[in-house]
Amino acid sequence: MFTGIVEELGEITAVEHLGDAARFRLRGPVVTQGARHGDSIAVNGVCLTVVEHEGDEFTADVMAETLKRSSLGVLTVGSRVNLERPTAVGARLGGHIVQGHVDGTGTILDRAPSEHWEIVKISLPADLARYVVEKGSITVDGISLTVVEAGDEHFTVSLIPTTLALTTLGLKQPGDPVNLEVDVVAKYVERLLGDRARGAVR
């Protein structure tokens, strides 16, 4: 489990295309500290497994399903990525519960800078709109954010200077894709209410 608090801005150093999969090598001095084979690291919000680790770099395999559901397929050598290690049991939950299971992708539609923050408008797949509410939580490229405005086809978030400086959202421009993970609590509630309506839960 992750919290959506990005630990560092890493970089793709190599990409090997394997037909129905890909292998990434990534540089991240912070997240590789103490890393071992089999550990999990979130890359732009996608939970990946460490295959190899050497120095400040690690490799991870990405399956076709992940490439299809996320924006990892567009990454190339030099791409910057948000990196986060799983939260430790008993640690503070700084953001919200993030599984690292991307629900879909959106696109940066607009950026509106102000003096001390920036409003970013992001497209929202129709099948995810029901899970997004004003002042609720959403994960964008692995970043735990609060929804400012929720529409049927888009939502907005407000970014503070720290988020702009230390994550990919400070770099992305209109037209760029982002990974989205909605709040898992909303999905569980929907399922339970649906089961109750069908008489499956008593």
From TrEMBL:
The leader peptide range reads: none
Q: Which InterPro entries match?
A: ATP_synth_asu-like_sf, Lumazine-bd, Lumazine-bd_dom, Riboflavin_synthase-like_b-brl
In the Enzyme Commission scheme, what number(s) does this protein have?
A: 2.5.1.9
Q: What are the entry keywords?
A: Repeat, Riboflavin biosynthesis, Transferase
Reaction(s) catalyzed by this protein? 2 6,7-dimethyl-8-(1-D-ribityl)lumazine + H(+) = 5-amino-6-(D-ribitylamino)uracil + riboflavin
Q: Where are the Lumazine-binding repeats?
A: 1-96, 97-193
Q: State the pathway, as annotated in the record.
A: Cofactor biosynthesis; riboflavin biosynthesis; riboflavin from 2-hydroxy-3-oxobutyl phosphate and 5-amino-6-(D-ribitylamino)uracil: step 2/2
Q: Which GO terms describe its molecular function?
A: riboflavin synthase activity
A Pfam family: Lum_binding
**Domain Lumazine-binding, first and last residues per copy:** 1-96, 97-193
**Xref: PROSITE patterns:** LUMAZINE_BIND
Provide the function of this protein. Catalyzes the dismutation of two molecules of 6,7-dimethyl-8-ribityllumazine, resulting in the formation of riboflavin and 5-amino-6-(D-ribitylamino)uracil.
Name this polypeptide is given:
Riboflavin synthase
Native organism is Streptomyces kebangsaanensis
